[in-house]
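Researcher: Next entry in the queue.
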Amino acid sequence: MQLQQLRYFATVAEVRHFTRAAEALHVAQPSLSQAIRALERELGAELFHRARGGITLTDAGETLLPHARRILADTETARRAVQEVALLRRGRVRLGAPPSLCASLVPDVLHAFHARYPGIELHVDEGGSQDLVRSLAGGALDLALIITPLGAGAPALATTELLQEDLVVVSAPSAPPPTGRPGMRVAELRGRPMVMFRQGYDLREITTAACRAAGFEPSFTVEGGELDAVLGFVRAGLGVAVVPGMVAARSGLRVTPFEGVRMRRTIAVAHRADAGMPGAARELREMLLEHGTPRGAPGPGVPRAGTPAAGPAEDM
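Model: Structure for this entry, 316 residues:
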């Protein structure tokens, strides 16, 4: 089994078309088809169902695909590690981060990193923490800013705490305040229309868990949005939302902190525990840990990195 065969297979599996895959790989289609056939003969199983309307993966193809992607990702990591003899003058770092941090911490850190290492390419994958954990474990990312603790059955990742951030309630400035007080309790979200993030966002899981701990199920008027969409729905008066303090401070929405038991998330820098990091990724990790909370950006109740963790009741 050759790396070229796996690369051809993964590309065909992604585009589901031999001609388009050959174009993407800059090879002749007959050569691509022959390589796939040779791989199938070696494995003793067909990898694709071939039909006039397109192609689909067989069960064998579905089984091979994640392994092929992992092997190709590990090979790329090894290739870039060897290139570090160029003293970080070339290379690439792939960073994953939640949207809230892409709007606050990440730009400052990437600016400083690029100034120090202008030859290193920076690729940012923006997404929910659960999605980033899967991408990191699959080799698609070098580093990721994720929410800890990781759930049961999570892949083996090495994590270092970066910062803790309080979550707050945002509502439309044109609507009445959620309460007659400066703050509100989690229990006061009962029966209140809420705008909720899509599956895969840690904010969805944290909010739902906090509501259930308070003895009720949250009521969603709109769900499935990304960060900007959720803030827009709240601004339009469709409901309230629970968001990070740093996001709330820049949203232009009314901000109401929680009273009593707070909702808080812990953000960590993570990488695969079973694979070494390229030098450029290690440098970026150190810069992230040095920057901690963005300058001038902490929202209500957002301590800097190194602040002692809150007790269990506050870590929802």
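Model: The two ends are 47 Å apart (CA to CA).
Researcher: Noted, moving on.
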